[in-house]
Design goal:
- The complex is a heterotrimer of chains A (199), B (255) and C (578).
- Chain A is built from seven helices and no strands.
- Chain A is mainly alpha-helical.
- Chain A has a single domain, classed as Cytochrome c oxidase, subunit III, four-helix bundle (Four Helix Bundle (Hemerythrin (Met), subunit A), Up-down Bundle).
- In chain A, helix 1 (20-49) runs parallel beside helix 7 and helix 4 packs antiparallel against helix 5 (130-158).
- The N and C termini of chain A lie far apart (58 Å).
- Chain B is 30% helix and 23% strand.
- In chain B, the strands form two sheets. A five-stranded mixed beta sheet of chain B has the order 3-2-1-5-8, with no helix packed on it. In chain B, strands 4-10-9-6-7 form a five-stranded mixed beta sheet.
- In chain B, a hairpin with a 4-residue loop joins strand 6 and strand 7.
- Chain C contains 19 helices and four strands.
- Chain C is globular.
- Chains in contact: A-C, B-C.
- The structure holds protoporphyrin IX containing FE and copper (II) ion (CU) (2 copies).
- Residues 280, 283, 329-330 of chain C line the site of one copper (II) ion.
- Protoporphyrin IX containing FE binds next to helix 3, helix 5 and helix 16 of chain C.
């Protein structure tokens, strides 16, 4: 029995209806939900226990964060488009949309960088109080997820020609899984934004 | 004051509430022993009776008897009894039934690396205000001498004097890391967590000197972070009480 | 096997070091984990010296300790309080996260799950290798802690803040190591789950899976859901230590009568909640694979079908689910309110029910069998009463009233060691003796195996039973000087007995180690199915080649068709059409 016989890499499993990598991605996202869930519950417990808690909007830059929210939402759309392009068998379009996704992610990081450096300039650090502690921890961790996404997407972009030529189905499946991840990262931000900036 | 006897077995119980705890412990262990021995005999019998040997064959059909089900149900029923009949009443009556404030002696017990401070409120039964910013080597509890309530306050280090037969309410807290205020002979254990104050209560039945044992890893001195509870006859306690210096008394404070 | 000549071209390094074959990775996990178990044991032997003879210089090593050869935190020659705390924290961490879990899930899970589901490999072979190497890196990082100034982590394996925040930098290393180990476990469990759900051979429906596979499935789900909150907690603690935040530091902390320069406002108990939300399910991560192994071996050597297969499966799932609802029974003494403590005592009693069911199922399976007492079976049968003691002694700890007395005493140590040492470790030994022939093609010596078994059984009980007695007599755990208090001094003889027994236990393990290595060369050669077993791993050549099966197996029967009436052989393999 050869190793090429690992099944359901390209075709969905008849019972579960999905491929291996998609199932794995869903499981991975479950761990991510638990990770951010743990951090969110820490946030709630700290906030409930605090005698006073600053209002995010007084200290954080809401317009910049709103812009960043838009950036991420658009990048989710371009991510879907890149997958759809593969499904419609157009590699050039895929490359275009994937590049857009990566660029938008970089824009997000740049805006985040501006926000961070402004805070440091005002001498607001994680150690200032638990509000900033949790702000930097959550957005920092989310930023790491963005960087991870950029790395993976760039890898797919660079190896696209080869993968598309050799295993088009597998490649499409991988982009779909990467898309799931990307939407999740987006979703986390959509939680973080109101929780940290508005409430 | 007799010397306590230690050895293998539960430590002596000199508290009024400890009886229920000990009863539960004995009951539990009897139950565990019974279960283990009965079950072990059954296991041993099965192993011997059904050992592989010439002419003996395994049976494809499984045991049909309902006995195991009944045994399981019986175990569960007994657990429910332990829980609802013994543990919950003991714990809940202990936890939710604080003694009458007027009858009781209220103290603060503050842990630090690696010692216990006992803060007595004095005659006014009111603790002086405390503030961690005031803490220094000369004022280890950070008592505010400007607060009139502090005038008759006093504290002791590692020694916890209390009168026999009188309910004690102890507010447990810590200055630095988590400790645990354990006095096994009084069947008392409560984590001392910084930032949190938890009141516990107990009444000592007999006079004597018992050990306080820190029961939560708190650093390098954890295993020697002890102290002594001195349970005294009321008149001895009164004498001790009156002898204590009042460091926050105005006359001394203004010196 | 067209595969064979193809793979001879692979060099040694690719074949045995950076292999992506689940069997090689399984063996790598196994060997690494056994080494860590040994290291964890050695740490404990140093502590046992101090416990038996407080304050005396450690023989032989004591001289070495002062000579600058060993990390400088141990330079005093004796095991002082700080060394003791370091060794204690690291013993716990190493045993659990680097020893038992990697052995139960990493080694046995990796090697057996693809074989038992009839798959050519794990669903993601490269990810599998990545997960092993992340584990390896985590282990190395953990060990590097010993060489930090101030030594490795010393705040217990539970790392309660604020103590752990004030601790020396070994704690930071510990946290980094934990993040690596968590990552490794998450990768591994995703792989195992996908393999079980997606790659089952034709005909192998869920209720035809060997129970071992079920156990791995539930275990992997537990790891998947319980580890991330610990990772979250680890990140927060890292921030507290490195970035100066106060997530776990309340307002008004004072150390040595000097107020600390921190923002404050944090909550020390938050860590405990996040930690135990992982660490209780972790107990089931330790025990479920063990139950899986024991089930396979008991059924095989009883030569009759498993009694109550579905009951066992449902109990396993229920156990996994409930394990998320009992965490705060480790925190009864923190001063929680009545409602909360009532809730957690009730859930704790409820979770004991499936454990009772598991034991009942296994023992009723024995009834009516024809029981062979080979070495794996001896260990598997001994698991039952040992696990029973572990489970029973959990009752007084799960009921709040008796926990007032037992919390933080050696009773706790005795209790969970009965679960993990004579419990889980025995099951793992059983598994090693049982599947060794499949991996190596030879059996381990059964004469020496029996000596190993009886020696271990006797000495391990002499180690851990006295600990229960120490706990009943009120001796606290994590005490570097057990004679400091009068009641401790009065029962010090127990500590001496335990230390002798621990030596005996260690010596007996040498027999195992020799047997393990010598049998590779000198063991009795065996065929593909030496135990006349039914499950799929025995349908492969021995040792199984890369790709496992010669052709994809089809499954026709449940996993335990032994002594089927009307057949001459007393077993009916899953892939054989009757
Ligand atoms: C087989 C030989 C073993 C012996 C002789 C042994 C002995 C001990 C002793 C005496 C302690 C208490 C130390 C103290 O409180 O000061 C301890 C703690 C501990 N042991 Fe073991 N143990 C063994 C195996 C294991 C195994 C296999 C595991 C886990 C799978 C384990 C996990 C732990 C943990 C988690 C602690 C608590 C550490 C802490 O307090 O932070 N041990 N062990
Ligand atoms: Cu302490
Ligand atoms: Cu637990």
């Amino acid at each position: 029995m050869s190793l090429d016989l690992i099944k359901y890499i390209e075709e969905p499993h008849p019972l579960t209806g999905i491929t291996n990598s998609k199932l794995a991605m869903w499981l991975f996202l479950a761990t991510e939900v638990m990770l951010f869930g743990g951090l969110f519950s820490a946030y709630i417990i700290l906030r409930v226990g605090a005698p006073d808690w600053p209002h995010g909007s007084e200290y954080l830059n809401v317009p910049l964060a709103t812009a960043n929210t838009m950036v991420l939402i658009i990048s989710s759309v371009t991510m879907v488009m890149s997958w759809a392009s593969l499904a419609m068998k157009s590699l050039p379009k895929f490359k275009f949309y994937m590049t857009m996704t990566i660029l938008l992610a970089c824009v997000f990081l740049v805006i985040k960088y501006i926000e961070y450096s402004h805070k440091f300039h005002l001498e607001l650090y994680p150690s200032t109080n638990n509000f900033f502690g949790i702000y930097f921890t959550l957005t920092g961790l989310h930023g790491l997820h963005i960087i991870g996404g950029i790395l993976v997407n760039t890898y797919f972009l660079l190896t696209a020609n080869k993968s598309w030529a050799e295993h088009p189905k597998m490649f499409t499946g991988r982009i779909e899984a990467a898309g799931l991840y990307w939407h999740f990262v987006d979703l986390v931000w959509i939680f973080l934004f109101p929780v940290l900036y508005l409430l | 004051m007799e010397k306590l006897q230690y050895g293998i077995g539960l430590m002596p119980d000199l508290s009024t509430h400890g009886h229920g705890i000990d009863q539960l412990i004995y009951f539990l262990h009897g139950f565990m022993l019974l279960l283990f021995v009965g079950w072990g005999i059954f296991l041993a019998y099965t192993l011997i009776r059904f050992r592989a040997r010439a002419g003996h064959k395994a049976n494809y059909e499984s045991l049909k008897s309902k006995l195991p089900k009944y045994a399981e149900v019986a175990v569960v029923a007994f657990e429910v009894f332990l829980l609802v009949g013994l543990s919950m009443p003991v714990w809940n009556s202990y936890k939710s039934d604080p003694p009458d404030e007027k009858e009781a002696l209220r103290v603060r017990v503050v842990g630090q690396q690696f010692a216990w401070y006992i803060h007595y409120a004095g005659e006014d039964k009111k603790f002086g205000r405390t503030d961690s910013k005031l803490i220094s080597d000369f004022n280890p509890l950070g008592i505010d001498s400007k607060d009139p309530a502090s005038e008759d306050d006093f504290y002791s280090l590692r020694n916890f004097n209390l009168p026999v037969g009188k309910p004690i309410i102890a507010e447990i807290t810590s200055k630095d890391v988590i400790h645990s205020f354990g006095v096994p002979v009084l069947r008392v254990k409560q984590d001392a967590t910084p930032g949190i104050t938890v009141p516990i209560w107990f009444t000592a039945k007999e006079t004597g000197e018992f050990e306080i044992i820190c029961s939560q890893l708190c650093g390098i001195g954890h295993s020697t972070m002890g102290g002594k509870v001195h349970v005294q006859k009321p008149e001895d306690f009164k004498k001790w009480w009156d002898e204590q210096e009042r460091p926050y008394k105005k006359s001394t404070a203004s010196l | 096997m067209s595969q064979d000549h193809h793979h001879q071209e692979l060099g040694f390094i690719q074949k045995y070091i950076f292999s992506v074959d689940h069997k090689v990775i399984g063996v790598q996990y196994g060997v690494t984990a056994l080494i860590f178990l040994f290291l964890g044991f050695c740490m404990m032997m140093l502590m046992r010296w101090q416990l038996a003879y407080p304050g005396e210089e450690v023989p032989i090593l004591g001289g070495l300790l002062g000579s600058g050869w060993l990390p400088d935190f141990m330079s005093a020659g004796d095991v002082d309080a700080s060394t003791y705390n370091t060794l204690g924290a690291m013993h716990g961490t190493v045993m659990i996260f680097l020893g038992v879990v990697p052995l139960g899930v990493g080694a046995f899970g990796n090697y057996l799950v693809p074989l038992q589901v009839g798959a050519p490999d794990m669903a993601f072979p490269k990810l599998n290798a990545a997960s092993y190497w992340t584990y390896f890196a985590g282990g190395v990082v953990m060990m590097l802690g010993f060489f930090m100034p101030g030594g490795a982590a010393n705040s217990g394996w539970t790392s309660y803040p604020p103590l752990s925040i004030f601790a020396s930098n070994g704690q930071t290393v510990w946290l980094v190591g934990m993040v690596l180990l968590i990552t490794s476990s998450l990768l591994g469990s995703v792989n195992i789950i996908v393999t079980i759900i997606q790659l089952r051979a034709p005909g192998l429906s869920f209720f035809k899976l060997p129970f071992f596979v079920w156990a791995q499935l539930v275990t992997s789900f537990i790891l998947l859901l319980a580890f991330p909150p610990l990772e979250a907690a680890g990140v927060l603690q890292l921030m507290d230590r490195v970035a100066g935040t106060s997530f776990f530091l309340p307002t008004g902390l004072v150390q040595s009568n000097m107020p600390l320069e921190i923002a404050g406002g944090g909550n020390s108990l938050l860590w405990q909640h996040l930690f135990w939300f992982l660490a209780h399910p972790e107990v089931y991560v330790l025990i479920l694979p063990a139950i899986g192994i024991v089930t396979e071996i008991v059924v095989n050597n009883t030569r009759k079908p498993l009694y109550g297969y579905k009951t066992l499966v449902y109990s396993g799932i229920f156990l996994g689910f409930m394990s998320f609802l009992v965490w705060a029974h480790h925190m009864f003494m923190t001063g929680m309110g009545e409602t909360m403590s009532d809730f957690f005592q009730v859930t704790t009693m409820i979770i004991s029910i499936p454990s009772v069911v598991v034991l009942t199922v296994l023992i009723i399976t024995l009834w009516g069998g024809s029981i062979r007492f080979n070495v794996p079976m001896l260990f598997a049968v001994a698991f039952l009463p040992m696990f029973a003691i572990g489970g029973l002694t959990g009752l007084p700890l799960g009921l709040t009233a008796s926990d007032i007395y037992f919390h933080d005493t050696y009773y706790v140590i005795g209790h969970f060691h009965y679960v993990v040492a004579p419990g889980t470790l025995f099951a793992l030994f059983a598994g090693i003796y049982y599947w060794y022939p499949k991996v190596v093609g030879r059996k381990m010596s059964s004469f020496w195996g029996k000596i190993h078994f009886w020696g271990s059984l006797i000495s391990i009980n002499l180690v851990f039973f006295p600990m229960l007695l120490q706990g009943i007599s009120g001796l606290n755990r994590r005490m570097y000087d057990p004679t400091f208090y009068e009641h401790g001094a009065s029962i010090q003889s127990l500590n001496v007995i335990i230390s002798y027994a621990a030596w005996a236990l260690g010596l007996v393990q040498l027999i195992f180690i020799l047997n393990f290595f010598l049998s590779i060369k000198f063991g009795k050669k065996v065929g593909d199915n030496p135990w006349q077993a039914t499950t799929l791993e025995w349908a492969t050549p021995t040792p199984p080649p890369h790709g496992n099966f010669l052709s994809e197996p089809t499954v026709y029967h449940g996993p335990y068709e032994y002594s089927v009436p009307g057949r001459t052989e007393d077993y009916l393999p899953q892939h054989v059409q009757a």
